[in-house]
Amino acid sequence: MENNRKIKYLVQGVQTSDGAGVNLNRIIGSPELNMLDPFLLLDEFGSDNPNDYIAGFPPHPHRGFETVTYMINGKFTHKDTAGNEGHLSDGGVQWMTAGKGVIHSEMPEQTEGLVRGFQLWLNLPKEKKMIEPAYHDIQADEIPIVHLQDGQVKIISGEYNSTVGPGKPHTGVLYLDVHLDKKSNISIPVENGWNAFIYVYEGEISANIDVMKGTLAVLEADGSFECESTNDNTKFILVAGDPIREPVARGGPFVMNTKGEVLQAFDDYQSGKFG
Ligand code: MN
Question: Which residues of 171-191 are buried (b: 16+ CB within 10 A; e: fewer)?
Answer without folding.
Answer: bebbbbbbbbbeebebebebe
